[in-house]
Amino acid sequence: MSSSHAAHAAPPKRTRSRTRTRTRTVVGLAVLGLLMVVVAATAWVGIRVLQAKDALEAAVPLASTIKDQVIAGDSDAAGRTAAELADYAQTASSRTSDPVWRTFELLPFLGPNLQVVRELAAVVDDVAQNAVTPLAELAGSFDLTDLKPVDGSIALQPLLDAQAPVAKAHDALARATTNVDAIETGQVLEVVRSAVTRLQTVTVETAGTLDGLNRAVTLLPAMLGANAPRDYILLFQNPAELRSSGGIPGALALLHTDQGAIELTQQATSTSFKQYQAPVLPLSDEIRSIFGDVTGEFMHDVTMTPDFAQTGALAREMWRLEFGVEANGVLSVDPVALSYLLDATGPITLATGDELNAGNAVQLLLRDVYARYEEPAQQDAFFAAAAGAVFDAVKSGRADPTKLITALARAGAENRVLVWNADEAEQAVLAGITLSDGRPLSDDQTNRFGLYLNDGTGVKMDLYLYLNMTTAIGQQTCREDRRPQYALEVTLTKTAPSDATTALPGYVTGGGSFGVPLGSIKTVVSAYGTPELQNLGLTRDSVEVPYHPATDATYPVSTIAIELAPGESTVLRFAWLGPEPFAGDLELRSTPLIALHETT
Fold first, then answer.
1. What is the pTM of this model?
2. Residue 451: its pLDDT value, please?
């Protein structure tokens, strides 16, 4: 019994050997199968990487091609190119979003690169589908000539039709900018990081352009009277006497709009307004401290503040008090902006027989007119006539639409065209852009400073370019707590001839009647830091001098009055202390001068 039991308990050696062989075979097949899956998946991802790379590389140049085609007016070609771009973008997105690709993103080293490529492809696809495509479709139905005035009226329907596709594209670009900024590139190859940087640049630039277009198509129909008639005061700023936003309002007009029709219904000059015994609207203690009550008492001083919203409100109230009309807003242009517009309209013959053109507008309006007319009323009347003639030329439809838009864009970028809407919702659409000309707004990437000039001579010395200005701005960190110090250096030079007291007429020098020595020039300089900075004061020619420190809506402000004799030059250095290290850019917004000053 025992020997029989032992025989049944121990299987034959050949049986155990076959079992181990089958086990090894199954394990081997499983390993081989897994290896084949890994190889296949790797090959799959590799192929799709190449496909996505080819699609993205083909898509990127098409964006510039579409831009060129739209500018050239070839909307059909732009539409075809947009469709091609969308196909490439969709291909790149689909090749980088399957489960196998997402699984490989978990791998060290390779994974972060695959993730970034997928995120890049998704952004490009979103932009192609939701920004480029609707804009290309809009280009196919929209022609700039549609915006040319006909019989003094601008067609509103093209602008209204553009609102939805432009808003959709604007949202897509804003979303793309956010999504690209959120892509982590710390653990990726340089070629991938470089692609992200390129896309960041493109989306930011394009989003900025589209932001302006979106604001325009949002506001213009309402301002042109699409919903109800509108009235706007037009200020013609004269930089012969400097003010923060440009110059004194020498001539004014009232524009009336209704269903796209535009009329100039009334003209006036600064002498049409009385001197009010108190500011026509309440002024903050800060504004009164820096610029004085005169900001709200004289029409020619409403531009002393750099905040054009306040300028607009003051000018609107003065117009109401004088003429009984409560305008819907205030617009402003200067002679340089008019010269840009004349490049679009072509030369204009004035009632005086003078030809006004892009080349002579600034000199004629800001220099020659003073030699011809010594009476301020006559000078202002000439300004008003010239502004009215340019308005009539634009309204008549004689301006080239492309040149007109270019002219307005250039003037706006230089703070020579300003807009304020009394309606708060409409004004909010303008917030933060140069057309609104508020105090300089900083962001995470850029600290923006302000430099504003107000003439204190009370005469026309600036019109002969006898005040030259150069600026430089920078920062350094030398404190133990690493807080940066910012400095704005301003060089002012009076280039009038030494015999200015006798060689220049009284309407230029003022004859010393405003407390400034004959032939000298007085300029009030106000420098604005960013809101979080601590004011460290200023020096003049490397020596500390008295100045007026103040705060304007949380901005630290340093103000000083400078008198310069003929040929004299001086260097002002304004300083601030920052709260924490900053590695971004520094920019300066300043009073637009007759001759553009140099900034370094």
1. 0.82
2. 96
